[in-house]
From TrEMBL:
This is Alpha/beta hydrolase. Gene3D superfamilies: alpha/beta hydrolase. Signal peptide: none annotated. GO terms for molecular function: hydrolase activity.
């Protein structure tokens, strides 16, 4: 009887462990995109009210959506080059206004845009959907006369994955990656080590793998106190890059610190890359 009870107790214990694993795994599988994509801030205001001289634009995606964006012209000197900014996973284009102003002050035209499901846009975000939105942004710049040789992609965090994917399809003059992760699966394993993340993910974003395919000058900016994207993952992207121009490390900088988002060291690093290719 004693051994029987022990056997049943062992079975119950195993079942409890399995349930404790399966429930959060199921929740993650069903609601994973609500964890990955965090649109906030509502519909952005008119561009000119936030960045002087900026204009509101509408992109056109291959699947019939019209994401909103802002086109910010250069201030003063015109380098006759454009920056396509791929946002991170939170906020909307208004959150990147300071970055746009800083880049415009250096003579660049800047395109800020919101992904589907962000900034009041129709649709729901996904890896495939964000790739389509980025292609629409590149098309918009091309229509304005900015060919690939006069366009630099600037991707931050999740946007670094979007920008790298776009660069693998449509190589720009250069690629600037701020706080890139090596892959979404690597990020998932870091933040959810108790779950079989690689089996559950719908979206993959293999950034390091794609960076190895992008043979254009690339700068990777890393905050060495980043608590969202582990610095070692950003270093892995730099190491994998087919044409690494520069790896820039900001000591003590966390993921959303202003110095890492749009600070002078970031802008100066971008200008160095642009001067190199333009």
């Amino acid at each position: 009887m004693t051994s029987g009870r022990r056997g049943r107790s062992a079975v119950v214990a195993v079942m409890v462990v399995v349930i404790l694993i399966l429930i959060p795994a199921g929740l993650l599988w069903a609601g994973q995109r609500s964890v990955i994509y965090l649109p906030s801030g509502g519909v952005p205001p008119a561009a000119a009210g936030v960045v002087p001289g900026a204009e509101d634009v509408r992109l056109t995606t291959e699947d019939g959506l019209e994401p909103g964006g802002w086109f910010v012209p250069p201030l003063g000197r015109d380098r006759e080059a454009a920056v396509l900014v791929a946002n991170g996973n939170a906020g909307n284009r208004e959150s990147r206004a300071a970055l746009a102003r800083a880049l415009a002050a250096e003579g660049f035209s800047v395109l800020l845009f919101d992904y589907r499901g962000y900034g009041g846009n129709q649709g729901s975000p996904s890896e495939r959907g964000l790739a389509a939105d980025a292609r629409a942004a590149a098309d918009h710049l091309a229509e304005r006369g900015f060919g690939a040789d006069r366009t630099i992609y600037f991707g931050e965090s999740l946007g670094a994955a979007v920008a790298t994917g776009l660069a693998a399809e449509r190589p720009p003059a250069a690629l600037f990656l701020r706080s890139p992760f090596s892959s979404l699966a690597d990020m998932g394993e870091r933040h959810y080590p108790f779950l079989p993340v690689r089996m559950l993910l719908w979206d993959r974003y293999p950034v390091a793998e794609r960076a190895a395919e992008v043979d254009v000058p690339t700068t990777v900016v890393i905050g060495d106190a980043d608590r969202v994207v582990p610095p070692e993952q950003s270093r892995a992207v730099a190491e994998a890059s087919a044409d690494l121009f520069e790896e820039v490390v900001l000591p003590g900088a966390d993921h959303n610190d202003a110095e890492l988002v749009h600070g002078p060291e970031v802008v100066e690093a971008f200008v160095r890359l642009a001067d190199h290719v333009l």
